Give the backbone structure.
Amino acid sequence: MSTQPPVSPAPDERVESDRLLHDALAGGKLPRWAAPAAGVASLVLAFGLNVVTFVDGVAGTLVVAALLFATIQTGWSFAVEGRRHAVDRLATTLVYTTFLVALAPLVAILLTVVVRGLKALDLDFLLTSMRGVSPRAEGGGVYHAIIGTLEQVGIAAMIGIPLGIMTAIYLVEYAAQARSRRLARAVSFFVDVMTGVPSVVVGLFIYTAFVLTLGMERSGFAAALALTILMIPVVVRSTEEMLRIVPRDLREAAYALGIPKWRTILKVVLPTALGGIVTGAMLAVARIAGETAPLLLTTFMTTSINWNPFAGPQAALPTFIWDQFNSGTDASQDRAWAAALVLITIVMVLYLTAKIIARFTGVKR
Amino acid sequence: MSTTVKPPGAPETAPEIKGAAVRRGDQVFLGLSRGAGVLILVIMAAIAVFLIWKAIPSLQANTANFFTTQDWTPDADPAYFGIAALAFGTIMTAIIAMLLAVPVGIGIALFIAHYANKRLGAALGFITDLLAAVPSIIFGMWGLSFLMPQMQGFLQWLATYFAWIPLFQNDLGIYTRSIMIAGTVLAIMVLPTVSAISREVFLQVPREHIEAALALGATRWEMVRMSVFPFARPGMISASMLGLGRALGETIAVALVLSATYTINWQITEPGGNTFAANIALRWNEARPTGLSALIASGLVLFVITLAVNMFARIVIARRSEFSGANS
Amino acid sequence: MSLSRTSGLAAVMIAGALALTACGSDGGSGTSSSAATSTIECASGSIKASGSSAQKNAIAEWVNAYIAACPDATIDYQATGSGAGVTDFINKQTAFAGSDSALKEDEQPQADARCASGPALNIPMVGGAINVVFNVEGLDTLVLDAPTLAGIFNNSITKWNDPKIAALNSGAALPDATIAQFHRSDESGTTDNFTKYLIAKDAWDFEGGKAWEADGGQGAKGSDGVASAVKSTANSIGYVELSFAEDAGLSSAAIDNGNGPIEATSDNAAITISSATVKGTGNNLPLDIDRAATKGYPIVLVTYEITCEKGLSGTDLDVTKSFLTYTASADGQAVLKANGYVPISGDLLTKVQTAVAAIG
């Protein structure tokens, strides 16, 4: 520790540091009504500009008002409060602005889907198929598409989730062993690669490999295969994260009691991480439920109900929406939006369930 | 382990599994989980090998330079196609999407994490998470039906007052079905993803860092700049990369909005343009074998681009996380 | 604890799913808007077909009439496009394909090979007119000829009040505005047949085909995309099938093929189609349509149903033959007229009916 006595700052430095201290602690502050005042002033000015100059339209006026507000408030703050607080206020304005700007289209989308979707949505719509209903006529429903989506996504989940969990277990529990390290690294790398495959390329792969080359027919199962490939990397990554969070002490306590590794994983590690794993799985399922491109290439549209995903044409919600939207008539457009509403609802129910499970099992997700 | 005398009243212990049974159970389980990992490798290898195999015929038949040609007639005789326009469109729309979505997404995340009160923040966080799961076909429908007509006025204004930037010049007076609009739709689609992941990262900043900054008298912005951003930088990058990946591979929304042309047009408010994914969606059903092979080749190029982006992101994150507090 | 909550939730969801399976049905039993369906000889079973999207609405109406009379049959038609339809047919995925153009030279032997014991037939079944639709304020009628049409669609004529257009439309109030031209961004038989007309009149410098080749204008996806684009854009022009033009309520241009302006109606198009000559042999009926000299509406397309003369089996054979017999009958063709399509008539229809009868 130095024994030098503190050196008092040189005269002008002292004035500067005193001034800064004074500004920070007891300096001028903008009055409480500063923000609203600046807001009103900028609105008035913007309106004036609207009348007088090239600024036109509601959106244009609002944008100019926002710019003026930022300038006025920042300038005023700079004069009264000093640079640091001025920058802070500017940052706050920017953050609030981006928030409002971003929320507008997102809320607009939700509202559009709900408002336009409710037009054609009723119980009949949910429980009838399109058999016998021509594209221009009203009526018909999405029952066959809901069945198709549930079955295809269900099969994909039944294959993809166990596969993903087992792979994650391998990467977390066994990767440390010297023997497995290279394989584990390769697997991890390729899971990353899988994350990046565009969904349309996966659809193209299943179409050319299974349908064209192997002669398999276009069916719900072909779609399920494409969806499985899309969901595996998501499940692997989220399960991996959850497994890593399980404290090492828990595992070591089990080993110390003589419990074999596989039993530890099954009975100790997995149940601890179960909440997070289920959440991750449901998120993956929600994501693939809305995939359109791979379904276009691997399924065959039908207007009738088909309970068999392994043979014959099967409809699904995304392809139903695509087909109806492209039919152009008013009735089919209404059906498309209503089906979109149904799809969003299913996705959101899955999502909500995931969140509830996460909340109850105490997982921070 | 030798058994000992059980104390009276002790509950029956579960039968111990020892010796060979343990080893077998472990081996089976190891085999299963390793098998799962190997299956992943096999699937990926199958996809790569098969697609490359199927892409070769068209590349051999191509009489044009695959990388620089701006045309797409693989089924003509002779085959003549190239991905120049597709690459341009894909990258341009992705850049526009990123330029719009990343600042706004981080802004929202910042708002939810540090500027809003807790309840509002939780509600908004929930809404953005929900929006991240909305299927992309709905974005496409909305973009075509509602966004495109609404954007006309803005694009016209842009072309009138910013024509000194060649990018925004518009010689046709027509503002629909352009790369600009497609990029905007992609931005809105990617926004919730970027925002949700950034928000999670912002919420994980250790409270000590934040409180230390505030205790030193920092304004809120300074606190964000000093404590939050350095810590969250890898997370923000990974959020942006995830969004970018989604924007690069988006098919349906772009297919509905773009007026598919095979030319590189830097004046992005004019109609025209095409992306890899949209091209596949628009062309696959009328494609004859060479055409399908050409589409697969373009799909592979897209795959490689997405892969490169992912790898780059991983490298950046890995390097940065050495310096951030994330490892503590 | 978490396990029981998770399993409780799962139980609720499964119960909900089971409840869902209990209700719900194939509600619609077919529209009976068309004429007597009692003349249909029914078959049962389900078949798949795919192909041209131009005939999508026609097939939908036919299928609905068919299954109204024959509830045990299911016919699934997927309008993925002519190319995909032919590919599906060659790969034995479908019972018949709908295609806007007859099988090409290299496709015919592949299709023949798919039909174990006989050749593949191109059977013309659905006629259509391609309307040139426009949306100009104050303009109700428009007359165009091949060179002007080509000029508009290859971007050499850019304004509505261009002298070439004015020459054909004396007295019309043509605005001084840029033409917003729309074409198809996806490959389609509509584009193919539209450009075939321009090529037949020596007005088009490109090769033609299903993909749009000219620069300029905007591409929209699907005929409905073009129709709604024209409808929502001022001073626009585009080409769509008759049924789409009617659905969207758009005005269509009359085409002057050398004999004065001909309106784009089903009857006028029928004149062109019925004067087509068959260039195939036996029951294979690919058509040669004389677009250059016809006195009817010249921009037409014909969609073929491609199937096996001999070689289908089982359900495929029964349902396909029964269905195509219905569509080729007078009742079936009458459905076309009512829905914005053009019926096949006269000698050609007799040949079509003979070809269908030969299936088996």
